[in-house]
């Protein structure tokens, strides 16, 4: 156990035994139980408030310098630590890409890269902060896994699994709260079926998962049965699971807040070609454009990602068949 100031003793006891935990609580618990865990950030402390005072020199802030951030994490990993690295997703995956590729990926070190505000979760911050190619970039690097939780519940349910894995990970961090509840991941349970259906199948991840779920509910009232799958681990994706789910459907739809190139649509296309799956795969994504900086509800409406718009778009795709 790490030494802490007596002032925080009661707070820590609450965290350890309280059944309702935040991301910060879970990360602190992991650090308290495993001295190898070290938190690093590039001045991105919003989700880690209070931890520097508790963890002391096991909390490192490099300032706005993502290359130094990843380089420091690699050095710590080489010495047996488990670095948990926090930064804006766009800057983490692009500014530090070479460091991630050559130092984390090549060496297969257990560095956990937590990309904050990915996709439309960057809201009104503008194009420089919009990580819409993060999956495409990271999936091209050997050895690094990718976890894209649907929402906060999915993140909290499975972040321990990610941190305790011996593999390096990129995580599309999500503090988006939804009404969905999620199962725990395991090596045999990477994706999860959220709704059953017979007329079409949706593969989705990250913040659009909830909208896709309720779009399927709207379509059910129109006598259309749509299956919804939360593909929360995009790499290594469970290929056999995707094949088994898709092979009996005429229409498959990949939904994502990511550029069309290199994301889930590309991943499924590769799988379907590899296994000769005879289905029509459609993409609902950001295509090849950045979104207008707005609040999340406004972005959903503007880009046709809200549940009503998704239901209309899916209906049109099915009716063309």
Give the gist of this structure.
The protein is an alpha/beta fold. The chain is built from 13 helices and 12 strands. The mean pLDDT is 94.
General description of the model:
- Helices cover about 40% and strands about 15% of the residues.
- Strand 11, helix 11 and strand 12 (about 280-285) form a beta-alpha-beta unit.
- The protein has a seven-stranded mixed beta sheet with strand order 2-1-3-4-6-5-10, with helices on both faces. The chain has a five-stranded mixed beta sheet with strand order 7-9-8-11-12, sandwiched between helices.
- By secondary structure, the chain is an alpha/beta fold.
- The protein is globular, with a radius of gyration of 20 Å.
- The longest helix is centred in the first third of the chain and has 13 residues, at about 65-80.
- The N and C termini lie far apart (about 60 Å).
- The protein has helices at about 10-15, 25-35, 50-55, 65-80, 90-95, 95-105, 135-140, 150-165, 210-220, 240-245, 265-275, 295-300, 305-320; strands at about 35-40, 60, 80-90, 110-115, 145, 170, 190-195, 200-205, 225-230, 235, 250-255, 280-285.
- Helix 2 (about 25-35) runs parallel beside helix 8.
- It folds into two domains: about 5-170, Thiamin diphosphate (ThDP)-binding fold, Pyr/PP domains (Rossmann fold), CATH 3.40.50; about 190-320, Rossmann fold, CATH 3.40.50.
């Amino acid at each position: 156990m790490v030494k802490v100031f007596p002032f925080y003793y009661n707070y820590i006891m609450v965290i350890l035994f309280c059944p309702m935990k935040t991301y910060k609580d879970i990360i602190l618990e992991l650090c308290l139980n495993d001295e190898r865990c070290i938190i690093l950030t590039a001045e991105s402390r919003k989700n880690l408030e209070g931890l520097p005072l508790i963890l002391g020199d096991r909390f490192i802030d490099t300032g706005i310098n993502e290359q130094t951030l990843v380089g420091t994490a690699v050095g710590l990993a080489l010495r047996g630590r488990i670095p948990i690295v926090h930064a804006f997703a766009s800057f983490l995956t692009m500014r530090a890409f070479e460091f991630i590729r050559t130092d984390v990926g090549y060496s297969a070190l257990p560095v956990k890269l937590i990309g904050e505000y990915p996709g439309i979760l960057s809201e009104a911050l503008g194009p420089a902060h919009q990580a819409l190619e993060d999956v495409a970039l990271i999936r091209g690097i050997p050895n690094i896994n990718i976890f894209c939780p649907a929402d906060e519940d999915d993140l909290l349910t499975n972040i321990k699994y990610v941190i305790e894995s011996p593999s390096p990970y990129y995580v599309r961090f999500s503090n988006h709260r939804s009404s969905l509840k999620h199962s725990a991941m395991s090596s045999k349970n990477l994706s999860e079926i959220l709704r059953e259906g017979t007329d079409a199948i949706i593969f989705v991840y990250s913040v659009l998962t909830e909208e896709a779920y309720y779009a399927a509910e709207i379509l059910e009232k129109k006598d259309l049965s749509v299956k919804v799958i939360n593909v929360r681990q995009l790499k290594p994706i469970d290929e056999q699971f995707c094949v088994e789910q898709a092979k009996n459907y005429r229409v498959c739809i990949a939904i994502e807040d990511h550029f069309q190139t290199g994301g889930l649509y590309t991943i499924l296309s590769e799988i379907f070609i590899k296994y000769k799956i005879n289905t029509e795969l459609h993409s609902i994504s950001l295509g090849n454009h950045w979104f207008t900086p707005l609040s999340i509800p406004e972005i959903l409406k503007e880009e046709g990602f809200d549940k009503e718009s998704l239901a209309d778009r899916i209906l049109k795709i099915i009716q063309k068949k």
